[in-house]
């Protein structure tokens, strides 16, 4: 676009003016002030955990403290974990998983790991310093019935005012979605694994 | 789950063993080694930019350098920007936007801002230190024809080997999706704005 004539510029101005009116009215309509949100990232697409860590980063930018409990991951090393080290004890990181369930092949061990992770999550929820808590892959633990869904939903509903919680993982339970304020479904439109590209540093881990 | 009998544990073990075989075969089938990916985050759901910044964080954890060019945002202050300051000059941050198009209501100014942002993006693509480049909200600039789609797609296709690029924003152009390696659609299942909760620190900005 190099040449913009006056008529076109005027039409654009008019259109955007109307758009702004709609936008401003929407913002003004927000009745409830701030609220600690229960956020769910689900779906088969890539980015659920990554987006949760992006939110954590944003909170850290405001000088706040965040908690991370990983329900499945744990055995391996990840880039975000090293990056979060830059924020010292403002990131409370707990990798409580034993790897994916098809790695351990041990039901009793998976259940014990999930229960320990959930106990850790509850402790972080009770800590008034924590502004945002990431429950990474808790949906997997719920899907396999490693945790009591009723207990998890009830505890999350009863979280202290102001605490934001992000629950990630595929196949979020309907009861969790019902309790949530914000739910995003990550849908895979196209994936490089299908084209034969392997998992690589900085992208997948 | 408190009582797990032996038969149940054995069934679980057998099921997960099969699952692991499928998983291992899939990993082994990846023929192409590492590749700089063109990633697109689109859709109406929340988290597109946040997930891109999560990827940037992961890269920073590996000691790499990332570039960020914001095509729309710029006027306002965000938490992630402050957080990235912890990584010094390993984050090359350029907010080149003038705000949303309905704020400026000035077509010529929007086009000029988009072109300046794209020139900055090209400079970062040429810099061998940059491992990941986030083109935040470039889809908005493309949607309004502020930039030449052909030029953008051709330049991105011709990126240097190993460079990962993430393009964010609603309504990604089909030509961009065609050129991409990884595309995630962020679908809004439930949004707290609809329930009257306003934008708040650490969550929306």
What does this structure look like?
The structure is a homodimer of 205-residue chains. Chain A has eight helices and six strands; from the N terminus they run H-E-H-E-H-E-H-H-E-H-H-E-H-E. The first copy, chain A, is of the alpha/beta class. The model of chain A has no long low-confidence stretch (mean pLDDT 88). Chain A is globular, with a radius of gyration of 21 Å. In chain A, helix 3 links the parallel strand 2 and strand 3. Chain A has one domain: P-loop containing nucleotide triphosphate hydrolases (Rossmann fold). Chains A and B meet through helix 1, strand 1, helix 2, helix 3 and helix 4 of A and helix 1, strand 1, helix 2, helix 3 and helix 4 of B. Chains A, B: Its EC number is 2.5.1.17.
Entry summary:
Chains A, B: It is an enzyme of class 2 (transferase). Chain A is built from eight helices and six strands, in the order H-E-H-E-H-E-H-H-E-H-H-E-H-E.
Q: Largest interface, per-chain counts?
A: A-B, 92 and 92 residues
What would you give as the CATH superfamily of chain A?
Answer: P-loop containing nucleotide triphosphate hydrolases
H/E series of chain A: HEHEHEHHEHHEHE
> What CATH architecture label of chain A applies?
3-Layer(aba) Sandwich
Enumerate the spans of chain A where pLDDT stays under 50 for 5 or more consecutive residues.
Answer: none
Helix content of chain A: 40-55%
State the total count of DSSP E strands of chain A: 6
So how many helices of chain A? 8
Organism (chains A, B): Antarcticirhabdus aurantiaca
Keywords (chains A, B): Transferase
Protein name (chains A, B): Cob(I)yrinic acid a,c-diamide adenosyltransferase
EC number (chains A, B): 2.5.1.17
